[in-house]
Each structure stands twice: as C-alpha cells, then as structure tokens.
Amino acid sequence: MAIVEEQAVYGYELSQKLQKVGLPDISEGTIYPVLLRLQKNGFIRGEMRPSTTGPNRKYYFLTDDGKTELDRIANEWLLIAGPVSKLLQRGK
C-alpha cells in the first residue's frame, strides 16, 4: 500500500517496484491475490486505463480507508521492529 500511496500502479509495475526496494521473491502470482483482497476490503480501488504498449491495464489507487490502514500498519510495525531488532542484536 505504501507504493500505491506514492503513485497509481498496475500489477506488473508493482512487482518491479517491490524488487527495486529489495523484495525480489514476490511474484506476480502473489501480488494479484493481495491486490484483490485489498480492493475487496476497500483499501485500494482499481481503474482500467489504456496502455501505449498493449491491452488496457488496471491501475490501483489508495483509498482514504487504505491511507488510514497504512498508517495503522506503519505504527504497529514501529512498535514491533525496535524490540525485535534489540532481541536479534543479543550481545553484538
């Protein structure tokens, strides 16, 4: 959702952006079910747009509910990441 918050993306483009930030093992077969679930939950919306290189593409946009959920997840992550990092540093 953080990537979709920055700009509207289509599935393959999202896969490429995730790889660029260091998550290379996330396949398109994983991304599309997650996008569908996010859309069903009202966190993103999809819109078909023409493509200059082929068939129309479905672009995804973050909704207001999605922004709220992203903020909640980010705050939860911050609460967990610090203590976990300390545990993993044990004696280093």
Rg measurement, Å: 16 Å
Query: Helix and strand succession?
Result: HEHHEEH
Return the structural class: alpha+beta
How many individual helices? 4
Low-pLDDT regions? none
Total number of beta strands = 3
The appropriate CATH architecture is Orthogonal Bundle
CATH-level-4 superfamily name: Winged helix-like DNA-binding domain superfamily/Winged helix DNA-binding domain
Number of domains: 1
* Spatial strand order of the main sheet: 1-3-2
Helical content band: 55-70%
Helices and strands in order, then pairings?
Layout: H1 2-6, E1 9-10, H2 11-20, H3 28-40, E2 44-51, E3 54-62, H4 64-88
Antiparallel strand pairs: 1-3, 2-3
Helix pairs in contact: 2-3
Describe this structure in words.
It is a single chain. This protein has helices at residues 2-6, 11-20, 28-40, 64-88, and strands at 9-10, 44-51, 54-62. A 3-stranded antiparallel sheet has the order 1-3-2. The model has no long low-confidence stretch (mean pLDDT 93). The protein has 92 residues and is an alpha+beta fold. The chain has 4 helices and 3 strands; from the N terminus they run H-E-H-H-E-E-H. 58% of the residues lie in helices and 21% in strands. It starts with a helix and ends with a helix. The longest helix has 25 residues, at 64-88. It has a single domain (2-88), classed as Winged helix-like DNA-binding domain superfamily/Winged helix DNA-binding domain (Arc Repressor Mutant, subunit A, Orthogonal Bundle).
